[in-house]
């Protein structure tokens, strides 16, 4: 099984990197781009687990280690 | 009095702290490896600055799982004074021993400069020798020192007088211009509910001798010596 974990800053938290990227895109003329939020992406290889077990494990790891719940939220995909 | 200075892979201010404590302050110190599980009978614990585990994932995010951290949490729970400096502060935040989190500096620059901070509280073990409102000059050196806490946590911190240091100008005025990193309410350092765990982004250990630009940081280390002596802990 493989789990993908997407970590982003919570909407309420200002993202200075995303803001700078958006500014750069706008100055390049990409006026169709609005706000930009930068995040992190993790691929976890999970050995011999059912989809439910894999999801539970990925959730635990994301909550405890991969994301800091004070400032970040995360989304998980298992396949 | 004995200080335990915890060494993580990537700590780089451990020897600065060791020098300040032993050579300037004249106290005992022991470097304690992060995989140790005992604090060597220390009276004070210092988590020094640096780039533990290369700052990978998030600053302090991996160091917080080091074996020594359980002993530090227990030491703090029993009321022992714990000081987290820069990366040490970030580790205390990740470990949940202090509330909030660090974001990338608002201007995305790594700030390496002397700043002024105002001592807001004189009743922590690390500020016992300072007057409330005292302004000291100490260096910062960080890329992620932009203190964040959600509005409810921030309100509680302010209401309980747990903001220990704020960035200010040389006259002690707390202004946006004096804030090097975008920290909420110009916060440079905070303490926990029981006030014995203190974290700050500036480096007092690098400002303990006039010959290197400032001796103001010595106040923090002298404070804990005085504080423990008053408690009869020595």
Largest β-sheet summary of chain A: 3 strands, antiparallel
* Main beta sheet of chain B: 9 strands, mixed
Question: Could you estimate the helical fraction of the residues of chain B in percent?
Answer: 10-25%
**How much of the sequence of chain B is in beta strands?**
15-25%
What is the count of DSSP helices of chain A, taking H or I runs of 4+ residues? 2
| Cα-to-Cα separation, first versus last residue of chain B | 7 Å
CATH topology of chain B: Rossmann fold
Please identify, by name, the CATH architecture of chain A: 2-Layer Sandwich
- The CATH topology assignment of chain A is Mth169, Chain: A
Q: Tally of extended strands of chain B? A: 11
Question: Structurally, how many domains make up the residues of chain A?
Answer: 1
The ordered string of helix (H) and strand (E) elements of chain A is: EHEHE
- Tell me the number of helical segments of chain B per DSSP (H or I, 4 or more residues long): 5
Order of helices and strands of chain B: EHEEHEHEEEEHEEEH
Average pLDDT of chain A:
95
Largest interface: A-B, 12 and 20 residues
The helix content of chain A is 25-40%
**Low-pLDDT sequence parts of chain B:** none
